Amino acid sequence: MRIDIWSDVVCPWCWIGKRRLQAGIELLGDDAPAFEIHWHPYQLDPDADATPVPLREVYAKKFGGAERTAQMLAQTQATARAEGLPFDFDRDQVRVTTLPAHRLLMLAAREGDADAVGEALFHAHFAEGRNLADPEVLVAAGAAGGLDAKRVLAMIDNKEFDAEVRAEIAQAQAMGIRAVPTFVIDGRLAVQGAQTPDAMADALRQALGSAAPSAASAPACGPSGCD
């Protein structure tokens, strides 16, 4: 069974949703088929460039002040830690373009382990506060997926996969994807948001033809912000 996932590496609910998908698959037990997972790019902030700007500063302007921002981040962090994810919003996260990170993921899908690179990018941003547009950070994430440092730097310098990433983002928009994570199961069932493991398992069973539709609304991130 194929699962296509649209996400952004600075979307907190995308990392949480990834963990919940894995838990949902485990709930299927012996009924689980072999899964083929494909990651696709999405940009929550397409106007961001390579200049780092403090994330709390960006959120304060967007969501109504420092107090509201602190509350939002604390709630999201608590949810993530309950899932076993080491979120730490006190690590001075920054807003930068995620295009280079998505290009790295596309390279990894062809020449390495995209899942491992994705995990490394999520961890670098949410747990360490690293700049995802920094070549050094991208090289380290690439190494987690078996990519040689010189290969990653050549990809960055030559802007490899830039057109492909932009084309996939345009495809997502044409498909009507407006928030992430969005999971498309077997090319025919779309599930949006970081569903609970039980809901993800039910969606997978539905795609397998052994359950009725059950997925409800779940937290997600879109251009206007995250739930």
From TrEMBL:
SUPFAM superfamilies: Thioredoxin-like (SSF52833). InterPro entries: DSBA-like_thioredoxin_dom, Thioredoxin-like_sf. Pfam families: DSBA. This is DsbA family oxidoreductase. PANTHER family: GLUTATHIONE S-TRANSFERASE KAPPA, THIOREDOXIN SUPERFAMILY PROTEIN. Residues 3-204 form the DSBA-like thioredoxin domain. It comes from the Bacteria.
